[in-house]
Amino acid sequence: FPWETIREYKEIRFLYYDGIAMISINRPEVHNAFTPLTVKEMSEAMELARQDERVGVVILTGEGGRAFCSGGDQSVRGHGGYIGDDHVPRLNVLDLQKQIRSIPKPVVAMVAGWAVGGGHVLHVICDLSIAAENARFGQTGPKVGSFDGGFGASYLARVVGQKKAREIWFLCDQYDAQDALSMGLVNKVVPIEKLEETTVEWCRKMLANSPIALRMLKSAFNAELDGQAGIQELAGNATLLYYLSDEAKEGQRSFLEKRKPDFRKFPKFP
Ligand code: 2NE
């Protein structure tokens, strides 16, 4: 596909094609492990994709075909977090996780090769995951002195069930693409040469559907799990829809025209 670069970055690629934004981690020499800079760039790209009215769907992936993402780069892990050029320890991937969940557009993980550790959590959080046959999944935290007890644990348990989620974290085993499909961890498995084509095809199906319906559904799925923050997201979308109505506009106009609002003409639905 004729992807165009939206913006140049050091550690990611950020591309656009036909309603789809693609954010691709570009550190294949370390199986796309992320540093604080990788995550900062991904966060910025995700925000740009959110603001870009051309974009209806986002693909998250990794370069090279051998890895989606191998989690935090252990060579820059320091005292209290992952350390960048400013010498400050950070766990900024947690902010990126929240962005993936709250962007009101579907995010699809396109997984070839390794999706492990914090990289596994990123695909788990995406709305959909499409895997190549060479994909390998797993959590490694307890082996390397780390864990993600946030979405990495609780949302994983919602996806695969409590027993399986505990197995994944406690044993730190690796699972192939068919294992992942059978536990509902991915939506589809395809040969690697069909991965991009299938992912774009799925994106096109979503792009053909009502963007507001998808937006409402994403926030509704989140609301059930995310407590007050989830309700805030869903309610924000309700406000958006209300602002589109003549009834809400009458309230605003009456204020600006310094008169009493006339809401009597609006229907009182059963
Ligand atoms: C993914 C896995 C199992 C692949 O093994 P293999 O044998 O196929 O590849 P290899 O040789 O291990 O990896 C290739 C190169 O990538 C580097 C390796 O060190 C190696 O470099 P060279 O020896 O060629 O120089 N590499 C791979 N993953 C890396 C990483 N995460 N950081 C830095 N360099 C990495 C195998 O590579 C593996 O087990 N990787 C580590 C996975 C891992 O434990 N990730 C961190 C989990 S913790 C986390 O992500 C996290 C969290 O728990 C909470 C908050 C935030 C983050």
From TrEMBL:
Its cofactor is hydrogencarbonate. Substrate binds at residues 70-74, 82, 114-118, 140, 146, 243, 258. Its EC number is 4.1.3.36. Hydrogencarbonate binds at residues 139-141. Keywords: Lyase, Menaquinone biosynthesis. One of its GO terms (biological process) is menaquinone biosynthetic process. Pathway: Quinol/quinone metabolism; 1,4-dihydroxy-2-naphthoate biosynthesis; 1,4-dihydroxy-2-naphthoate from chorismate: step 6/7; Quinol/quinone metabolism; menaquinone biosynthesis. One of its GO terms (molecular function) is 1,4-dihydroxy-2-naphthoyl-CoA synthase activity. Converts o-succinylbenzoyl-CoA (OSB-CoA) to 1,4-dihydroxy-2-naphthoyl-CoA (DHNA-CoA). Pfam families: ECH_1 (PF00378). Belongs to the enoyl-CoA hydratase/isomerase family. MenB subfamily. One of its GO terms (cellular component) is cytosol. This is 1,4-dihydroxy-2-naphthoyl-CoA synthase. InterPro entries: ClpP/crotonase-like_dom_sf (IPR029045), DHNA-CoA_synthase_MenB (IPR010198), Enoyl-CoA_hyd/isom_CS (IPR018376), Enoyl-CoA_hydra/iso (IPR001753), Enoyl-CoA_hydra_C (IPR014748). The gene is menB. The record marks 82, 243 as: Important for catalysis. It catalyses: 2-succinylbenzoyl-CoA + H(+) = 1,4-dihydroxy-2-naphthoyl-CoA + H2O.
